């Protein structure tokens, strides 16, 4: 009997572990969350998923959950990594958990084991990140020291028809032998087709293709919803009619939206406001902005930067430019690195932060994966700064000194050894990487380019893109521009703002504004009847509402820890207007007479799931996405 360890006991890993236990494998579950491990060991589910809850009761302690890698990895024949690559409000994933998991596994894994990655990753991740980590421990995946494969997860939480047991799977391996071993394993546990692809990149691209297909089609229907709304056409009725065609049409539905690593607070960036440019520390900028619109989500705090732009670097054109700052966040994190390079250049950031490097071309690598052939990139196109001009931020002697140092460093750059000069940037040799401890770190998300020019002109990436963003950004690096995918992302990213605008338009009819309006937001999860908030548009909608001065009340029956009222009645009682973001059964089936009882005057149905005619019949203003 083979021994299996599933790494990451969340929405993907826990159902898989349950299935392996049912098939009578000796099964371990490895997770860093002790509370989660303790619950599983007592046959309780740490996630709100009916399938998992029932399975844990039936298998009766067959999963040995642990937080210690040395208890499970050394004796395992198969290790399956199911850690999250979470997508935040800006559709940017964080590969930290994947890299940390593989790093831990590599220290305990035995020769000839099968290592399968199920986490969602971009094409090239296994070869560029996983394989080098294994190689540090003297395992050559290309020689089958470890059989490395990728099987993209396809779990759909809450879906009773398509479960982990009957969903077809695709496999790709670093070698053909690895793919074959992985395929044999999945055929032993699921009742569905298992397809072996010719290489691992094709398998990695499969999940991205699936999600991008959905993204593009939802963008299409969101665009049609906006158009039909202007024409007074109910898009749900149109989709219902089009769905009667038995071929060449697949219904997708409009909605409020489709559901990174950080810097030290003392790193400098260049902020542009109106026509003036100011250097400022990231931490100081956050502290200035937080008084206007800070939103707290778990341990992470977010601010909307408004109309600020930052100095960025376009990896495609290789030129500096100013781009809108989409989001600024603050969160606790302790594992930091200081990267030092020639010419007194240095930067302090989190250990897995994506770094722009030059190594036979511009590339993006995790900070702790840099090698002696990688060089940091310095933009030679820094802004001219008038430190005598009137500005909104208070300059100190330290800031003036920083400006002078920037200018002097660029002049001296050509004289340093280990520096290669190009037209618009320089590539400078890394001298050392030092491990440090941190407390709070700051992340910023930059529109279009995904880069920021920081301390002494160093170019850094803000995060690694996921799903359609994987394809868009990776394609840029090989000289291809995904115009269609970029447009789809632009449309879908606009939906939270559009949803709030629908409320504003309804309020105008009553000669009211959103400032000081009492708005109830129904739902935080990204889809119905689960507690998973990844990719949820709710957080951006809440942020926009608060930025505009609304008082926001939030309730999600599956995400109570982030709700600020006890129940649905509590939300309705405090609110004058509501925006439905998640179509949980509790919201779909609610007694709509309560809307009148609690004097709700406007309903924005972000999922088009409420009884439009009944609500309007009670004298309440109703507006859905593409229907009114």
Q: How would you explain this protein's 3D organization?
A:
The protein is an alpha/beta fold. The protein folds into 3 domains: 3-209, Rossmann fold; 268-462, Hedgehog/Intein (Hint) domain (Endonuclease - Pi-scei, Chain A, domain 1); 494-624, Rossmann fold (3-Layer(aba) Sandwich). Helix content is 33%, strand content 24%. β15 and β16 form a beta hairpin. α8 (200-231) crosses α13 (483-493) and α14 (495-509) packs across α15 (538-547). It is globular and about 75 Å long. Mean pLDDT is 82; it is low at 87-92, 257-261, 386-396 and 463-471.
Largest beta-sheet characterization: 8 strands, mixed
SS summary, helix count: 19
Which class of the largest domain in CATH terms?
A: Alpha Beta
CATH fold topology of the largest domain: Rossmann fold
> Percent helix among the residues?
25-40%
Strand order of the largest sheet: 3-2-1-4-5-6-7-8
The CATH architecture classification of the largest domain is 3-Layer(aba) Sandwich
Cα(first) to Cα(last) distance is 60 Å
The CATH homologous superfamily of the largest domain is named: NAD(P)-binding Rossmann-like Domain
Q: Give the averaged pLDDT, no decimals.
A: 82
Q: Roughly what fraction of the amino acids lie in strands?
A: 15-25%
Tell me the radius of gyration.
26 Å
Judging from the principal axes of the Cα atoms, what is the shape? globular
Which structural class do you get from the secondary structure elements?
alpha/beta
Q: How many beta-strand elements?
A: 29
Tally of individual domains: 3
Low-pLDDT ranges:
87-92, 257-261, 386-396, 463-471
């Amino acid at each position: 009997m083979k021994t299996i360890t599933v790494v990451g006991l969340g929405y993907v890993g826990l159902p898989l572990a349950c299935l392996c236990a049912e098939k009578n494998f000796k099964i371990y579950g490895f997770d860093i969350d002790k509370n989660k491990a303790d619950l599983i060991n007592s046959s309780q589910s740490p996630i709100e998923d009916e399938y998992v809850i029932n399975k844990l009761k039936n298998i009766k302690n067959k999963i040995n959950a642990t937080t210690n890698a040395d208890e499970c990895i050394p004796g395992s024949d198969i290790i399956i990594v199911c850690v999250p690559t979470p997508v935040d409000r800006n559709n940017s994933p964080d590969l930290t958990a994947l890299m940390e998991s593989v790093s831990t596994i590599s220290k305990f894994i035995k020769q000839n084991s099968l290592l399968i990655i199920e986490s969602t990753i971009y094409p090239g991740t296994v070869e560029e990140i996983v394989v080098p980590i294994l190689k540090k421990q003297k395992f050559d995946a290309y020689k089958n020291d470890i059989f490395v494969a990728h099987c993209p997860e396809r779990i759909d939480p809450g879906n009773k028809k398509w479960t982990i047991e009957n969903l077809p799977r695709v496999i790709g391996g670093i070698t053909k032998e690895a793919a074959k071993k992985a395929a044999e394993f999945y055929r032993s546990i699921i009742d569905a087709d298992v397809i072996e692809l010719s290489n691992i990149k094709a398998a990695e691209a499969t999940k991205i293709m699936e999600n991008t297909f959905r993204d593009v089609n939802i963008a299409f229907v969101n665009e049609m919803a906006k158009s039909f709304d202007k024409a007074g056409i109910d898009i749900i009725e149109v989709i219902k009619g089009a769905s009667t065609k038995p071929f060449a049409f697949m219904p997708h539905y409009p909605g409020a939206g489709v559901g990174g690593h950080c810097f030290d607070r003392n790193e400098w960036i260049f902020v542009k406001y109106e026509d003036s440019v100011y250097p400022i520390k990231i931490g100081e900028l956050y502290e200035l902005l937080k008084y206007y619109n800070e939103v707290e989500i778990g341990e992470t705090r977010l601010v909307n930067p408004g109309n600020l732009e930052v100095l960025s670097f376009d990896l495609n054109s290789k030129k500096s430019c100013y781009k809108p700052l989409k989001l600024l966040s603050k969160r606790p994190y302790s594992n930091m690195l200081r990267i030092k390079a020639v010419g007194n250049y240095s930067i302090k950031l989190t250990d897995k932060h994506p770094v722009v490097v030059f190594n036979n071309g511009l590339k993006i690598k995790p900070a702790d994966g840099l090698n002696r052939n990688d060089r940091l990139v310095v933009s030679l196109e820094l802004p001219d700064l008038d430190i005598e001009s009137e500005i909104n931020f208070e300059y100190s002697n330290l800031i003036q000194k920083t400006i002078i140092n920037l200018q002097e460093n660029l002049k001296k750059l050509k004289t340093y050894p280990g520096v290669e000069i190009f037209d618009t940037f320089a590539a400078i040799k890394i001298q050392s990487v030092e491990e440090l401890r941190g407390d709070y770190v700051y992340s910023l998300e930059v529109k279009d380019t995904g880069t920021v020019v920081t301390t002494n002109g160093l170019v850094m990436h803000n995060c690694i893109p996921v799903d359609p963003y994987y394809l868009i950004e990776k394609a840029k690096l090989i000289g291809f521009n995904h115009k269609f995918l970029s447009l789809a992302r632009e449309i879908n990213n606009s939906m939270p703002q559009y949803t709030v605008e629908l409320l504003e338009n309804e309020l105008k009819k009553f000669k009211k504004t959103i400032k000081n309006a009492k708005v109830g937001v129904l739902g935080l999860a990204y889809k119905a009847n689960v507690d998973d908030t990844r990719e949820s548009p709710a957080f951006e909608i809440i942020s926009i509402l608060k930025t505009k001065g609304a008082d926001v009340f939030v309730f999600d029956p599956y995400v109570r820890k982030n709700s600020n009222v006890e129940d649905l009645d509590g939300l309705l009682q405090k609110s004058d207007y509501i925006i439905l973001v998640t179509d949980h059964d509790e919201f779909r089936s609610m007694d709509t007479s309560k809307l009148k009882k609690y004097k709700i005057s406007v309903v924005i149905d972000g999922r088009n799931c409420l009884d439009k005619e009944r609500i309007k019949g009670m004298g309440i203003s109703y507006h859905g996405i593409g229907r009114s």
